[in-house]
Write a structure and sequence with these properties.
With 657 residues, the protein is an all-beta fold. The protein has no helices and 57 strands.
């Protein structure tokens, strides 16, 4: 359960809001020393939020809309009992990392909406493998066959569990890495071996045990002894032949032939000595021909501790000695470990340090003493607490933007060489470093949505995690959604104004100005530019979209100096005629019209427009001249006197005609 999560909306709330803001939170993102939650692979768990408060800078609260849960590395089932879906049931997939996302959409009094996503990470641990061996050994059919009264020895083959439980199937049980049991009644039994770790997940192995209703040879005087002790062992049944075998740490002193029902052994170092006895022609044992196997606990001055020598921060480990009968045990560990169970017994459980420091080499030590036998000793094991590592980088990004991720040791915070990869929501790799790096710049050109950045260290054995990952949300790139007002044909050296037509409320605009040999960046809805004498000239404008100020698609405008131009209009006119003349170049330019000679005509209208009218006065050749940005165009005009009218009339008129 997570208690009292508080989120705060940072920034001003617009009174007219038409942009949907999104924020992505990871409670562990800013604290690399903090652990994720721990879970067990293929297990189920309940997860809930106790309370969640969302407010702005002024303490105002919001109307909640559309809460939802999603999960990677598992599945999430939402409880219908809570109106805001704070209670969930999680099912975890394979070992690795899982992330649970809670998304809530809120709306204020002005209909401004924000979307918050909380990310809760989980270290999904593999269950310990419940594997073990037996003496006598399991047969080829996977069944353990023993005789009634025969001692059976069990030993766990996995050391990554915290607890070991043996259920023998006859109503009795034992715990520990090793166990010994004698089945006293013939029958078929199902043995269960359960290995469990601290995340309360376990693996169980099953074994069928068939107990034949006839006893094996009984060997007496089997008990814990001291190193260097000579002991005689006797089979208490009459047989025609005996086959004795002892382990290499024993020396035969007497007996042990095929006709001897005893054997005398001088034992060397421990922790155990082994005796096997096969017999033939034993009328008291009927047809049970199982070989008797006996373990002799030997208290040596220097025993070997069983357990993990390389551990992870925060791990819980088991360390043990053989269960010497009548022996006291006093355990101790280094300053970065804590004995949480088993003190005074042959097996202890240790919880190792889980903080930010780099711990020195640690140790597990035990002193043991059998006051009855008068022997004992001590043992020590060096333990290395391995480092972890983490990814440092932003968990929100912009499409077509870039983010730098660093791989760092979680104790020294120094760089860790690792392979980096980016996976999409289907698990497909869309980017990979290709070689080991300690940091990488990732360009987000794979589209928008959720992505996973994954790091795998070059030295996998040097760290606790085989791979780590972090979830990144990539905001989609928005269209520019506006147009730009301003002249694209300019006079070099002149100043021009450019502005956004219908700017989007709440967004900023970034202008990148290429002006000859210089490039300048400005912000605002409008800018003024004094263009240099020589190009190139270029304007590139993007809209910076909340909440990350992600650049929109760019609007690019090429600005060109005034090209060569010409004048069109009447080239042959009469005096007192009004004629029209137009520049082939139009735009936001300065036009300077002239008539040569100046007395040849009068410009009607503004001489600074692209179009003028001229009233011609004087007969003869003339010119219409236009100057734009220092360039001059001329049109020759021939001004003629208008033709004189010729009156046709009769020479004489008659009265009344």
């Amino acid at each position: 359960m997570v208690d009292n999560v508080s989120l705060r909306v940072v920034g001003d709330l617009e009174t007219s809001c038409n942009v949907q803001h999104q924020r992505f939170f990871n409670p562990f993102a800013n604290n690399p020393d903090a652990n994720c939650y721990t879970a067990c692979a293929y297990s189920e768990a309940s997860f809930s939020l106790d309370s969640l408060m969302i407010s702005d800078n002024w303490g105002s609260y919001f109307q909640w809309l559309q809460p939802s849960w999603t999960m990677t590395g598992g599945t999430v089932e939402v409880s219908s009992s809570h109106p805001w879906a704070w209670e969930t049931r999680l099912t975890f997939d394979a070992p690795g990392e899982a992330t649970l996302y809670y998304q809530i959409q809120v709306e204020d009094d002005y209909a401004c909406q924000s979307i918050f996503t909380l990310a809760f990470c989980f270290d999904v641990l593999p269950p310990p493998e419940a594997s073990f061996s037996t003496q006598p050994a399991i047969n080829s059919a996977g069944i353990l066959e023993v005789c009634e009264g025969q001692s059976v020895y069990f030993e766990a083959e996995t050391l990554d569990a915290e607890t070991y439980s043996w259920l023998f199937g006859d109503g009795t049980a034992a715990s520990g890495i090793t166990a010994q049991h004698t089945y006293t009644t013939a029958g078929v039994y199902e043995l269960q071996f359960i290995a469990a770790n601290g995340c309360e997940c376990a693996d169980t192995s099953y074994l069928q045990v068939v107990v034949v209703g006839n006893e094996t040879p009984f060997v007496d005087c089997v008990a814990t002894i001291c190193e260097g002790t000579t002991t005689t062992y006797t089979a208490n049944t009459g047989c025609s032949s005996y086959l004795w075998e002892i382990s290499s740490n024993g020396t035969l002193v007497d007996g042990g032939t095929s006709t001897d029902d005893f054997i005398t052994v001088e034992w060397g170092s421990g922790p155990v000595g082994e005796i096997t006895l096969a017999t033939d022609g034993c009328p008291d044992l009927s047809d049970c021909n199982a070989v008797a196997y006996i373990q002799v606990p030997i208290v040596s001055a220097a025993a070997a501790i069983s357990g993990s020598e390389s551990v992870c921060k925060g791990s819980i480990e088991t360390y043990s000695l053989p269960p010497f009968e009548g022996t006291s045990f006093m355990w101790s560990v280094g300053g970065y470990g804590n004995i949480i169970a088993g003190q005074g017994t042959p097996s202890i459980t240790v919880e190792w340090y889980d903080g930010p420091e780099m711990p020195p080499a640690q140790w597990v030590q035990v002193t043991y003493d059998n006051c009855y036998l008068g022997c004992g000793g001590n043992a020590q094991m060096e333990v290395l607490i391995r480092s972890g590592y983490y990814l440092s980088g932003e968990i929100e990004a912009c499409e077509q933007g870039s983010t730098t991720f660093h791989v760092l040791n979680d104790q020294t915070h120094t760089p860790v060489p690792a392979f980096l990869a980016v996976l999409d929501d289907t698990g497909s790799i869309v980017w990979a470093s290709g070689m080991t790096v300690t940091s990488a710049l990732i360009d987000w050109d794979f589209g928008d949505g959720y992505f996973t950045v994954q790091a795998t260290p070059q030295d996998v054995d040097g760290f606790c995690q085989e791979a780590i990952s972090t979830r990144v949300y990539v905001y989609p790139q928005s269209p520019f959604a506006s147009s730009i007002d301003g002249s694209t044909i300019i006079c070099p050296g002149a100043a021009y104004t450019y502005s956004i037509n219908n700017p989007q409320q709440g967004d900023r605009y970034q202008w990148t100005i290429t002006n000859g040999a210089t490039t300048d960046i400005r912000y605002g809805n409008s800018i003024a530019v004094s263009w240099e004498a020589a190009g190139p000239y270029l304007l590139e404008v993007v809209r910076l979209v909340a909440p990350l100020s992600c650049p929109s698609q760019a609007e690019v405008i090429s600005v060109l100096p005034v090209p060569a131009f010409s004048i069109s209009g009447d080239a042959s006119v009469c005096t007192d005629q009004l004629a029209e003349y137009t520049s082939s170049q139009t735009g936001d330019l300065i036009y300077e019209w002239r008539i040569l000679p100046a007395t040849g005509g009068t410009i009607i209208g503004s001489p600074s427009d692209a179009f003028v009218q001229v009233l011609w006065h004087t007969e003869g050749p003339a010119q219409v001249q236009l100057s734009i940005c220092g360039q001059v165009a001329t049109l020759a005009v021939n001004v003629l006197m208008p033709p004189q009218p010729i009156v046709q009339y009769p020479v004489a008129l008659c009265p009344g005609s």
